[in-house]
Amino acid sequence: YRNLTHWLKTRSVSVDLNNDASLLIDIPDALCERDKVKFTVHTKTTLSAFQKPEFSVPRQHEDFIWLHDTLVETEDYAGLIIPPAPPKPDFESPREKMHKLGEGEATMTKEEYNKMKQELEAEYLAVFKKTVQVHEIFLQRLSSHAILSKDRNFQIFLEYDQDLSVRRKNAKEMFGGFFKNMVKTADEVIISGIKEVDDFFEQEKTFLLDYYSKIKDSTAKAEKMTRSHKNVADDYIHISATLNTLSADDSTFYLRLYKVEGRVASDQELKLTELLRYYMRDIQAAKDLLYRRARALADYEHSNKALDKARLKSKDVPQAEEHQQQCLQKFDKLSESGKRELTSFKGRRVVAFRKNLIEMAELEIKHAKNNVTLLQGCIDLLKSN
Amino acid sequence: AQETQLFSLVPAVRNPQKSSDLPVSSSSTSLPMFRNKTFSVRRRFSDFLGLYEKMSVKSSLHGCVIPPPPEKSVMGMTKVKVGKDDPSSAEFLERRRAALERYLQRVVCHPLLLQDPDVREFLEKEELPRAVNTQALSGAGFLKMINKASDAVNKMTIKMNESDTWFEDKLQEVESEEQQLRKLHAVVDSLVNHRKELCGNTAVFAKSMAMLGNSEDNTALSRALSQLAEVEDKMEQLHQEQAASDFFIFAELLADYIRLLGAVRGCFDQRMRAWQRWQEAQSTLQKKREAEAKLLWANKPDKLQQAKEEITEWEAKVTQYERDFDRIGVTVRKEVLRFEEEKAKDFKGQIVKYLESMLQSQQRLIKFWEAFLPEAKAIA
């Protein structure tokens, strides 16, 4: 199929991560072969935990998932918001369109075919850029986190110069995705059901549950809107191609207008839709934290009841006391850590929205100004003839 | 340039029971043929079709490109959904009104048609007798009628052999252009539909964004998200207006010219039929001459007299038909050139109008986003 090797020099990062010079991570390069994308993960560090100050390793999407899952399964990180796993690279849409284009090649002019092909290659590139970005952000969230950046598996992910697939298989056998599956089932019911004593968590719970449903809705609707915009852009290509065969002077105009329309559509997508999609997943991760805390509280309540029972029967009281203490400690630790995490999450979200909304507005203005110049030029030309 | 007549159609009052009467008002600045400077009459849709019928059968107008009336059926060539199908909808009425207006404007633009008494009667006379022969037009539609006639011409047994290839070449050009316009029209139709979808999806998204803004607990961000929702609402408005431009300026222009090119093809067919009539007359004359020869040999003096009379009659016809054929050839050539000039002007005018509508749209878009930008920057 196609090999796309790109040096991706300029990319905008959703949040200002990658600031700490002691551990800098980026994905400068990626290769696309059929279904598989191979990311080059590049690290620059001053930390002694690593063997070299600068190094690169090839990684697949599955390696990222392995890393994410091991972090979720780690008991010590129960009080942290684990950055959401990057979604699987999805080239389905441009691939399907490329296939359709191949089938319809006979019915269109050479020029129309070439234009559509160019456009599809641009779409491929956009999907590609998007997937590199989300994988990069995942790693940068980890590197900028005080606790997670020190995780041993994270370091292995960055440094280990062999194939990780053996490790991945072993991990799967060990954990079997147990904890992950548990979290998925009815977490909202459990979170809502908890008798909350802490105002902060009470507010957070209400806010996150409501916000999640709203942002999920907005994400879906934003996707629909940008898809429609893409359809309009595609129509402009066809118009341009057909106008050309009529030897009208407007054809080149339409082509350029398309390019701007198409770019507006994919810029909107990168900025707004991706922002919404990302924070939807991030809020899910925050909800997961609330869930784990709710479970810890439930465990603590059970341990209290067990202690009362033990005292009543005067049997195994020291063990019950110790168990109760452990549960309390765990719950307190989760609450303390959770509070910190959720507070910094708020700040992070606001900063990210601000950055993206500004960039989106600036892009809209820039493209519209380009359009105005283009249109004015065409009008003047037509009027002067 | 002799266009001193201004012409405008005022929108009809809605009458859901039957086709509404349309007020047709004209204003003329200096043409002496009209009694008043401005005048207004009421016409039924069938009257417009009737006018076309009258013009299309006049021998004096043979070879002329007579502008075809709009389709009676709303669907016609378009697949644009919603509102277009509903006869009581504002969109449908506007579409019909605009189409009828363009039709009349093209009629009065034509130097010969402007002189035509039926045209003047249509514009001026208080009450018109109801048109009766419009069934073929309103039922099958104009293009179906033209295509049927073309088929008949194609089935002609005697083929024309022309030393001057202008007619053959030009007809081919016309047919090819008609195909291209059809293709283009289909894509523009698709554009209109997609833009309407974008409209709907933008409105839905705006509402969702407003809800999200309400849920947001950071005050400044909440405000910005609500503002974003308002901007998207304004974008929906822009998309709606753009879709209307796409349709009324661009798509309808293409639809009109697909029909007009059909009318041009019709002229070429008329010329062919004139040629055929001449050929058949020549053939008949030949037969009459042969019959006379036979009679001479058979010695039937009274029948011979009749035969001689018939020969004279047919000789005159042959001369007449040949002259008709030459004349229609000249007319067709002139008409095609006039048509091409009009078309270039028309297209240019409409495309400039379309580009201007897009320009205005983009300028408003800039204003909306420039107003939003400080809100986004105010997030803290």
Features:
heterodimer; A: alpha+beta; PX Domain; Substrate Binding Domain Of Dnak, Chain:A, Domain 2; 2 domains; four-stranded antiparallel sheet; 10 helices; disordered N terminus; B: mainly alpha; three-stranded antiparallel sheet; 9 helices; 3 strands; elongated; AH/BAR_dom_sf (chain B); phosphatidylinositol binding (chain B)
What topology emerges from the helices and strands here?
The complex is a heterodimer of chains A (385) and B (380).
Chain A: E1 3-7, E2 23-33, E3 36-45, E4 54-60, H1 61-73, H2 92-103, H3 110-143, H4 152-159, H5 165-175, H6 178-184, H7 187-193, H8 199-245, H9 250-313, H10 317-384
Antiparallel strand pairs in A: 1-2, 2-3, 3-4
Helix pairs in contact in A: 1-5, 2-3, 3-8, 3-9, 7-9, 8-9, 9-10
Chain B: E1 5-9, E2 22-28, E3 38-43, H1 45-56, H2 90-109, H3 111-115, H4 117-124, H5 135-140, H6 142-154, H7 166-215, H8 219-298, H9 301-377
Antiparallel strand pairs in B: 1-2, 2-3
Helix pairs in contact in B: 6-8, 7-8, 8-9
Descriptive report:
With 385 residues, chain A is α+β, with helices and mostly antiparallel strands. Chain A is built from 10 helices and 4 strands; from the N terminus they run E-E-E-E-H-H-H-H-H-H-H-H-H-H. A 4-stranded antiparallel beta sheet of chain A has the order 1-2-3-4. The longest helix of chain A has 68 residues, at 317-384. Mean pLDDT of chain A is 83; it is low at 1-14. Chain B has 2 domains: 1-155, PX Domain, CATH 3.30.1520; 179-379, Up-down Bundle (Substrate Binding Domain Of Dnak, Chain:A, Domain 2), CATH 1.20.1270. Chain B is mainly α and 380 residues long. The termini of chain B are far apart. The relative contact order of chain B is 0.10. Chain B has 9 helices and 3 strands, in the order βββααααααααα. In chain B, helix 6 packs parallel to helix 8 (219-298), helix 7 (166-215) packs antiparallel against helix 8 (219-298) and helix 8 (219-298) packs antiparallel against helix 9 (301-377). The chains are: A alpha+beta (385), B mainly alpha (380).
